[in-house]
């Protein structure tokens, strides 16, 4: 999705995140450390497709199922299936944490996508970034933009986010993910949420969101619990991007607000 949900970034956090171990075929194993703890993850090196992430549809030439977004770890890597750790307040301003944030923004924008969680670059910390631009939105069909209540918003960095639903309204739409390249599935999400946490300077931040921004926030916060959108998808709606416009199976709920 959110797809909720960018190619390989570069230098700023390279020393922090790219201490390569023995290479694997078609991938690199990265080992990194924050606060003395090390983690390992597999990061692919193949090229990514335009708007391959969280834009929810094929608009703008989204990739086929075989496209891969470099800079992100993929489904099956343990870091994506386990809860992430909170960032200590005293560590927020550290070079390591700020480097992680810079790398996340770089990877997200290069994919490009509209959201990213730290576990998606192999870092098990509770940090999310998200941004939706008028340019990104312009690639989606007008009817989808209206149905999804999608509006541009500036870059948000949220550390240790805490999410709560602020209404009982929900909607069903297709989502994708940079860690599950080339696929989509229908997911039911709340339409109104509030997320509180810290910004990248360690100051309190609270975001009240609705529509597509609320969906992105829920998708990214799920990553911090070790949950992928496929863990929540409506059964029988999973498909490759090229089949996104095909009818839903009989018995599946219709897309849109409920």
TrEMBL record:
Enzyme Commission number(s) from the entry: 3.5.1.88
Entry keywords, A to Z: Chloroplast, Hydrolase, Metal-binding, Plastid, Protein biosynthesis, Signal, Transit peptide
Signal peptide annotation: 1-26
InterPro entries membership: Peptide_deformylase, Peptide_deformylase_sf
Catalytic reaction(s) noted: N-terminal N-formyl-L-methionyl-[peptide] + H2O = N-terminal L-methionyl-[peptide] + formate
Location(s), subcellular: Plastid, Chloroplast
UniProt superkingdom: Eukaryota
Pfam families, alphabetized: Pep_deformylase
Entry annotated with the keyword Signal: yes
Cellular compartments per GO CC: chloroplast; mitochondrion
One GO molecular-function entry: peptide deformylase activity
GO BP annotations listed: translation
Keyword Hydrolase: yes
Role noted for this protein: Removes the formyl group from the N-terminal Met of newly synthesized proteins.
Protein family membership: Belongs to the polypeptide deformylase family.
Stated name of the protein: Peptide deformylase
Gene source species: Urochloa decumbens
């Amino acid at each position: 999705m959110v797809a909720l949900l960018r190619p390989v970034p570069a230098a700023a956090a390279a020393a922090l995140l790219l201490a390569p171990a023995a290479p694997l075929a078609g991938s690199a194993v990265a080992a990194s450390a924050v606060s003395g703890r090390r983690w390992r993850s597999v990061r692919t090196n193949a090229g990514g497709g335009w708007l391959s992430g969280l834009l929810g549809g094929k608009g703008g030439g989204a990739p086929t199922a075989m496209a891969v977004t470099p800079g992100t770890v993929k489904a099956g890597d343990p870091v994506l299936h386990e809860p992430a750790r909170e960032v200590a307040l005293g560590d927020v301003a550290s070079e390591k944490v700020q480097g992680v944030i810079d790398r996340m923004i770089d990877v997200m924008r290069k994919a490009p996508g509209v959201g990213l969680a730290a576990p998606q670059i192999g870092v098990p910390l509770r940090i999310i970034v998200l941004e939706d631009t008028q340019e990104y939105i312009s690639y989606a069909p007008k009817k989808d933009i209206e149905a999804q209540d999608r509006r541009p918003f500036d870059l948000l960095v949220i550390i240790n986010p805490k999410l709560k639903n602020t209404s009982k309204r929900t909607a069903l739409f297709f989502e994708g993910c940079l860690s599950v390249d080339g696929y989509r599935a229908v997911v039911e999400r709340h339409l109104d949420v509030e997320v509180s946490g810290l910004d990248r300077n360690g100051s309190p931040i609270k975001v009240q969101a609705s529509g597509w921004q609320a969906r992105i926030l829920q998708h990214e916060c799920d990553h911090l619990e070790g949950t992928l959108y496929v863990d929540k998808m409506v059964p029988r709606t999973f498909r490759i991007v090229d089949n996104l416009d095909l009818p839903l199976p009989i018995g599946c709920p219709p897309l849109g607000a409920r």
